[in-house]
Amino acid sequence: MSYRGPSPMDRRVSYRAPQTSSRYARLVFPACAFVVVVLFVAGSTLLIRGRLAESADADAASAASRRAARPARELLAPRGPAPRVDQSRASLPVIPARSYILVDEASGAVLAESDAARRLAPASVTKIATAVLLLELGHLDDVVTVDVDVNDLDPDSTIMGLSSGDQYTFRDLLHGLMLRSGNDAAVAIARAVSGDETRFVNTMNALAARLELTDTHFTDPHGLGGPEHYTSARDLAALTRYAFTLPGFAEVVRQTRWDTHGTKQIELWNSNVFLYMYDDADGVKIGYTEEADRTLVASATRDGHRLIAVVLGDSYAATHAGNLLDWGWDTACWPAAAGGCERVKPRE
Q: Which residue of 104, 144, 278, 340 has the smallest Cβ count within 10 Å?
């Protein structure tokens, strides 16, 4: 039978592409363009922030490298004229410490000392070195996830009150280190800055070498170390002079209170009794272990002049540091620009 219908080839249907409504196009296309722009801007912002962070890290590393390359005579160079001491004005007080020194912070001039190069256990004044490295190598507003727990520390440790997993800024940890004298803060800083405590301690000893602290060797970031952890009054005075050149150090060590803003609020009161008992006191750090007895790096500023007293191995370190400072104010005078000599005004 022959098929007489139309040829299958004649059954062609013309294809018309679906048309998008003009309203739909007006809504969708601008929205897509907006999303693309937002994503581009967000990506650019993240890239810029990343590059700024990398730049900040690079700047910090570069600054640390420049400091490491500078000799001690530059880092500890006098920043003002040395005072003259008139010992006829007042007798040097009896200080029954194992070692002590009194220095003018600006010039580095030694006003009084006894056995100042003797190697002794420093206890928690060690934390001055830990603070210096944090200020050199860290960014105080960076947030750190803590991986230390107070239960892992010596039961007699002074602590800030950290728990593993807590998040705090370096600024909070610095206050916990210097005000509360937290050994947990010291360990957290060491791990966050250097990756582990061993590398951080190596950096502490590199700092001592950089400042030519020839009677100093560290074995931990907090001061509980054994026989190989030692320093001297003279070295601590030099370290503290350098610390005062770093932005942020003076502001922290003179504070009596700080409230943290991290995982939990911790009220930190400064345990440095010297701040509360001596007029014009503005730092720095106390320490204690049975081996070291009381240790103290004390500073006070009057009429623009700061004196630093270091007292090691003294059960009444704060009282005797005050006696040293009183003698310093009584006997020292600083060269005046117009000639002559200026003394600090007596306190009423």
A: 340
